[in-house]
Amino acid sequence: MGKLLVLTGASGTLGRFLAPALAAQGYRLRLSDIVAFPDPLPEGASFHPADLADAGAVADLLAGCDAVLHFGGISVEKPWAQIVGPNLLGVTHIFEAARTPLPGHRMPRVIFASSNHTIGFYERGTVLSTDDPYRTDGYYGLSKAYGELLGRMMFDKHGVENVHLRIGSALPAPTEARHLATWLSLADLLRLVIAALEAAQTGHAIVWGVSANQGRWWQGDDAARIGYVPQDDAARFAPLPERGDALTRQYQGGSFAAQDNSRAG
Ligand code: 15L
């Protein structure tokens, strides 16, 4: 029988891609979101509505699972008050539930959809590894950096295995010049998720969620350790138009760095 996975954020864009794709690979899925799943349920999947800010609901959701793909929460820049519940409490509740499994069960592996907005304030063209210091471009990126740091602590202190996917721009196709560096094809996203699920051991790992783009800015990470080998390259869509104002074009995080930026002017 296939592994039992919990997928949070199942009703979001990436969740709706991953749910049928993972079901087709033979995984059993417990899908969750705060809003209804809008598509027909894939074979072997069930849907459980849950608010990530509710610790008890998250604990019930994870009971007995083999791994959790945590794609839930707010996925764009928002004021602090809107980020704190879904993102900060949410990822904390996921890890707290993972470290206290049901009797007779192992701790599930946590695979966290992190983001390039953890480093969004580096200038474009700067080559980065996952060891470079965080430069988040807002509260959303800060919540992702918190999730990565929480994963470090949860492995060191409690042995919860975890993989953080520092996703660039996960889209069917790149649409603007920035994506020549940041694009993650959906086929590579699926390869990345399966590598994170199937690696024999992960400890605490951080992997850039990016395709094999000739123009990528992101290099050193734990991809080889988990066996992720991307196959797509945004260069075949070049040239693509530049978008946005000067600040948007200056930073790796693009419009997130420019949003609500009081130094602009
Ligand atoms: C993200 O983290 C967002 O969730 C997504 O909507 C895109 O904006 C992406 O980053 C990106 O940077 O392109």
From TrEMBL:
Q: Which UniProt keywords apply?
A: NAD, Oxidoreductase, Plasmid
Q: Which residues form the NAD-dependent epimerase/dehydratase domain?
A: 6-169
Record bears the keyword NAD? yes
* GO molecular function terms noted in the UniProt entry: oxidoreductase activity
Question: Looking at the keywords, is NAD present?
Answer: yes
Quote the InterPro entries the UniProt record gives: Epimerase_deHydtase (IPR001509), NAD(P)-bd_dom_sf (IPR036291)
The family line of this record is: Belongs to the NAD(P)-dependent epimerase/dehydratase family.
**What's the protein here called?**
NAD(P)-dependent oxidoreductase
Name the species this protein comes from.
Gemmobacter fulvus
